[in-house]
Write a structure and sequence with these properties.
CATH architecture: Orthogonal Bundle
Radius of gyration: 18 Å
Shape: elongated
CATH class: Mainly Alpha
Helix content: 55-70%
CATH superfamily: Winged helix-like DNA-binding domain superfamily/Winged helix DNA-binding domain
Structural class: mainly alpha
Order of helices and strands: HHEHHEEH
């Protein structure tokens, strides 16, 4: 996880808070329709906290809000093409970090065996 976060910090792109990243991942990794109310309940935070996270994701075109035509009191959260591309990039970063972690643990185990 550390390597993934460090790679996100080092890359040339926007910074995300843990909450913004949590909202983003929830929207993109769970297929059911998402609402502000539902995200707040699922992540155990207030609706204003979700709204602030969605404001930032909206500025970056990673998610957008739309009034639910069936229930105008409800706000739906929609994915974007740019958000899908960011998710692909994030998966790549995580894959590279996992490969590096596996390589590092193999090298550590080899050194321990050699020193025994």
């Amino acid at each position: 996880m550390r390597d993934t976060v460090v790679a996100l910090v080092r890359r040339d792109g926007p910074d995300f808070s843990a909450r913004q990243l949590g909202v983003f991942l929830t929207c993109y990794l769970q297929d059911d329709p998402h609402t502000v109310r539902g995200l707040a309940a699922r992540l155990n935070v207030s609706k204003p906290a979700i709204t602030r996270a969605l404001d930032r994701l909206g500025e970056l075109d990673l998610a957008r809000r739309k009034v639910d035509p069936m229930d105008r009191r409800s706000v739906l959260v929609q994915r974007t093409l740019k958000g899908a591309a960011f998710l692909r990039d994030l998966r790549g970063i995580m894959g590279e970090a996992a490969s590096g972690a596996r390589k590092g643990s193999t090298e550590t185990a080899s050194r321990k065996t050699a020193n025994s």
